[in-house]
Amino acid sequence: MSDQPIGVVGAGTMGQGIAQVAVASGFSVHLYDVADEQLSRAEANIDKGLGKLVAKDKISEADKAAALSRLSTTTTLDALNDCAVIIEAAPEQPELKEKLFRDLSRLSSTTILASNTSSLSLTRLAAVCEHPERVVGMHFFNPVPVLKLVEVIRAEQTSDATVAEIETLAKALGKTAVPVGDAPGFAVNRLMVPMINEAAFIVQEGTATPEAVDDAMKLGAAHPMGPLALADLIGLDVCLAIMEVLQEGFGDPKYRPCPLLKRMVSAGYLGRKSGRGFYVYE
Ligand SMILES: NC(=O)c1ccc[n+]([C@@H]2O[C@H](COP(=O)([O-])OP(=O)(O)OC[C@H]3O[C@@H](n4cnc5c(N)ncnc54)[C@H](O)[C@@H]3O)[C@@H](O)[C@H]2O)c1
């Protein structure tokens, strides 16, 4: 597989991380985006990310130069037609992803199409493709160069061979693949985001302050970070969107988004990215 390039679609937060890890692991990468300036930003950030590894003596300057030489950028989808695997990390919009998958599935009859979606149904994405058995979820976690997990999500149509190839690829990228079915929130978000939502209920009801909730979970449950500091890092809008996906997908009232979370999102208190969430950031 490593003789053929990997395609990465979308050069934002996740696409940059995936491309960085892939070139550092010896793969050639074609990084595609609709925006030229985003590709320039991605190249600069990947250079910086690899630079940090050099500073920590994890790779040499020569390794960094070799990794960067394996990265090419493009705004032409056709340039991905020689890829063994294309990993899509475009915005979380169902219509945008469906159009992309339809177009990507026409490029080659052998390419595996993997989506990094956090919440959309892989089965629905596979259904718009010419070779649905080659569609799979490959859910990386942010920051990609640091976090080891990849949830491998099997759509109804995904073949065993596709799952096996993606598990092999995850391993070659230094990640640990965990198989998960195509259900809302997969495994991690289904567990983690309702915990954040419950923490918001605790604050809303005046049972404890955000600091107290976070201290309690760090000291009493050995979480490296409290749930509300984590919510600020993820983005409260993203947490709310995931709760809505769980509520709609399962139709179960236990996934009701906390009204405080909704009010904070409406107010623009989105966490670190807006300077204010459960905490205030300078
Ligand atoms: N950010 C996270 O913590 C995180 C974690 C896991 C999964 N995800 C998932 O990864 C995907 C990408 O998220 P992100 O945070 O990197 O988003 P982002 O907004 O940082 O990046 C998206 C990129 O896609 C590009 N883009 C827009 N339209 C496009 C198109 N038609 N074709 C190709 N590229 C296009 C944008 O220019 C941008 O560079 C989403 O599906 C998201 O749910 C995000």
Automatic annotation (TrEMBL):
Chain positions recorded as NAD(+) binding sites: G10, A11, G12, T13, M14, G15, D33, E92, K97, S118, N142, K273
Protein name in the entry: 3-hydroxyacyl-CoA dehydrogenase
Tagged with keyword NAD: yes
Keyword match Amino-acid biosynthesis: no
Annotated ranges, domain 3-hydroxyacyl-CoA dehydrogenase NAD binding: 6-182
Family: Belongs to the 3-hydroxyacyl-CoA dehydrogenase family.
Pfam families, alphabetized: 3HCDH, 3HCDH_N
Domain of life assignment: Bacteria
Keywords in alphabetical order: NAD, Oxidoreductase
GO biological-process terms attached to the record: fatty acid metabolic process
MF annotations from Gene Ontology: NAD+ binding; oxidoreductase activity, acting on the CH-OH group of donors, NAD or NADP as acceptor
Domain (3-hydroxyacyl-CoA dehydrogenase C-terminal): residue spans on this chain: 185-281
Residue numbers marked as site, Important for catalytic activity: H139
Matches recorded under SUPFAM superfamilies: 6-phosphogluconate dehydrogenase C-terminal domain-like, NAD(P)-binding Rossmann-fold domains
